[in-house]
Specification:
- The structure is a single chain.
- By secondary structure, the protein is an alpha/beta fold.
- It is built from 7 helices and 7 strands; from the N terminus they run H-E-H-E-H-E-E-H-E-H-H-E-H-E.
- It has a 7-stranded mixed beta sheet with strand order 3-2-1-4-5-7-6, with helices on both faces.
């Protein structure tokens, strides 16, 4: 999968957003964090990290943006949290020993990493045998362009169904990748991960400012959450396990 032309960094989720709790609940159905030490890649301001940290022994959180890490550090001091270390680091070059972490989280970050295959190989390297990688990535079949695009003559860059266009056209203008299930499964499989499980996360509509509309659409979405159209929700979550050894490459 080639890098897209206009790839940009994403914006962190706000601390009071519903999406944080809902994502944590989905993750905890598949991964136990009790007495575990995890790595959070692309932690941003730490909103999701701190929520997950409540169930774990400790963590290291990394990001490439200094300002967001400073916000995160302030939040840790404010809350008296001492079992989380913050590092400014790129996912394509993880400065950790092999098999360091019990679990790795990469929440809505992979789509912004220029060399995603290299990053996934690094995640595999620093994850312990039988550990889990949890990925959350934009679903290609969501009706809106999740991260926006540099579209000519259009001031609003989250055009409906833009991500459904042929990949060559989408990647020319989009600010981040979107993925089909097959694309992400192929990526993590090539990196060595197995036992790949999929969850669909409905849009929590946190960014919808009108509270009446927000509550109205949330009730509709949550009511139909078990409907087959869940395949069109905005984010897919993948839980991938590391085998004790890589299968030999053919040829």
């Amino acid at each position: 999968m080639k890098d897209i032309k206009n790839i940009q960094l994403g914006a962190p989720i706000e601390y009071n957003y519903l999406g944080i709790k809902r994502r944590s609940n989905i993750i905890r159905r598949h991964v136990s964090l009790k007495n575990k030490y995890f790595l959070d890649i692309g932690c941003g301001n730490g909103a999701q990290t701190i929520d997950l940290l409540r169930y774990a022994k400790g963590c290291i959180a990394i990001d490439v943006e200094k300002e967001r890490l400073e916000v995160f550090q302030w939040q840790l001091r404010k809350r008296g949290i001492r079992n989380c270390k913050i590092r400014m680091m790129n996912a394509m070059n993880l400065y950790f020993l092999n098999k360091t972490f019990d679990t790795i989280f990469c929440i809505e970050t992979l789509e912004h990493i220029k060399e995603q295959e290299k990053a996934l190989n690094e995640m595999y390297r620093v994850l312990k045998d039988n550990g889990d990688l949890v990925l959350s990535v934009p679903n290609r079949w969501w009706i809106f362009e999740t991260h926006g695009a540099n579209l000519p003559l259009l001031s609003w860059n989250r055009v409906p169904f833009f991500s459904w266009l042929p990949k060559k056209i989408h990647d020319k203008y989009a600010y981040a990748r979107t993925y089909t299930k097959k694309e992400i499964v192929d990526l993590v499989y090539r990196a060595g991960f197995r036992n790949i499980r999929t969850e669909f996360m409905m849009p929590p509509l946190d960014r919808l400012e009108n509270k009446f509309l927000q509550n109205f659409f949330r009730h509709i979405i949550f009511f139909i959450r078990k409907n087959p159209i869940k395949n069109f929700w905005s984010f897919n979550i993948y839980i991938c396990s590391k085998r004790e050894f890589r299968e030999p490459k053919s040829g």
